[in-house]
């Protein structure tokens, strides 16, 4: 397992500065939450290369329709095709898809919304295959997205889409909200787990909440997981979604990322 970070909690808009920060934290990769409309792919690619950072996935945050009336399947697929191109052109070649659920809010029923999501994922997956881009779907809690809140729901979605190429992202914070057993969720995902995210039950560093990280580490070992582990921390007074606002907060977050990384690495001994 290699340690990476998710970019949005760092609160750094400049991609060069952000990649430098990840390197300074001695992390090997970044799950990049950038917007192709704001930062061109070639710039992201150069910044990562300059600091010897792997982009483990393109994970766009601003991926909801600009207006609810525009939340159609056709527009969703068209937009996500541009994101597939972006993932390809950054040299990363990996894109997350969970934002597609934000385009289903105009559906009359949950069943209609789910059917639209399946169709959209299937269409985007076909295009991604043509472009040589791999796909991930992050299982997020029900406060953040309208659909797919458990690993079982994620696996069922992938089965419905009919793709063995799409893998899941499981996040310790999200699992703590919606999974009856996070350990069982990891075991169920098995070799279809692509990335694992670290943050405690309050979205802060390891040990600040009530998550049993040793049990989850052991579950990852049991399924033979060797992928990226991405640290996605928010400071306790800024949870759940606010990045650092001051230089003091940035230094404190850096220290908490380093501490959590060290704790995670130490779990290998106990596991």
UniProtKB/TrEMBL annotation:
GO molecular-function term, one example from the UniProt record: isomerase activity
Signal sequence extent: none
Key words, A-Z: Isomerase
Record-annotated Xylose isomerase-like TIM barrel domain positions: 21-241
Keyword hit for Ribosomal protein: no
A matching Pfam family: AP_endonuc_2
Protein name: Sugar phosphate isomerase/epimerase
Gene source species: Chimaeribacter arupi
